[in-house]
Structure formats: C-alpha cells, structure tokens
Amino acid sequence: MASTLDKSPDRTHAADVMVPADLQVSDHTAVDKALDILHSAHVEHLLVRGDDGHCVGLVTKDDLSGYLSQPWYSQHARLRDLVRPLEPFAHPDTPIDAVASAMREHDAHVWPVVDADGFALGVITAEQLSS
C-alpha cells in the first residue's frame, strides 16, 4: 500500500478540492492504448492501478508523447514501466498546502488522492489549487 502525506484537521483539505478519479487504467495497459484513451476522453492524465486495484501512480500526455513516433514500441511497452509513482499520495484529510508542496517538489500538475487502503478517490490539479 502506498504511503500518504501528513494529515491536519485545521486547514482546507484535499477532499475539498479533488475531482473524482473517473479514468483509471491497469498498469498492464499498453502505451498506445493509454494514448488512445487520453485522446478520446480529452483528458491530460490517467490514474494507473496495480493488479490489486491500488493506485500506483499516474501518466500524463506529456509522459507518453515521446512514444507517438515509435508505434512498435508503444504497442509493446506497458504503463507499469513508465508510471510516475508520485508518492506519498494525498489522503482526503491532507492539507492543501502539503499537496501543493509535494506537487512543486515533483514538478507535477496533478496529484492522486487515495483512501486509507490505497484505492484512488480522485485527483487534485494545479488549476484547482490556484483557484
């Protein structure tokens, strides 16, 4: 199970600004399939889950863009080899400033929010933190 960021009861929390984790894919998903999903769903990122359903990280269009010119490789490469782990994941009780700090530290524009068991609940984007 993935670790989570510290919790604090006295600030705005991840649960207050996260959006649901609607799109999740298996870490066995091929890169070309992930690119198809990103394109057809008009989204910038996908949460990636392991065999047990726990969130293992995410991939973004930018992460996968280098594979567009390598069709053979993108058909055979799996997300488990490319996923950005971004641990520790946020928990619904994680203060927004801790999420923002982790995002800056990892140069990430989106951050997973997981429950106590490590299942994805949603994501927080940089745009949500700035509004």
Quickly describe the structure:
The chain is of the alpha+beta class.
Number of strands: 6
Q: What form results from the Cα inertia axes?
A: globular
Our count of helices gives 6
Q: Roughly how much helix do the residues carry, as a percent range? A: 25-40%
Spatial order of the strands in the main sheet?
1-6-5
Mean pLDDT metric? 86
Label the structural class. Answer: alpha+beta
* Binned strand content: 15-25%
Report how far apart the termini are: 31 Å
Low-confidence stretches: 6-10
> What is the CA-based Rg, rounded?
15 Å
SSE ordering? HEEHEEHHHEEH
Major sheet description = 3 strands, antiparallel
Task: Give a written overview of the molecule.
The protein is an alpha+beta fold and 131 residues long. Helices cover 31% and strands 21% of the residues. The protein has helices at residues 14-17, 31-41, 61-64, 71-76, 96-105, 126-130; strands spanning 19-20, 24-26, 45-49, 55-60, 110-114, 120-125. Strands 1-6-5 form a three-stranded antiparallel β-sheet. The radius of gyration is 15 Å and the shape is globular. The N and C termini lie far apart (31 Å). The model is unreliable at 6-10 (pLDDT under 50).
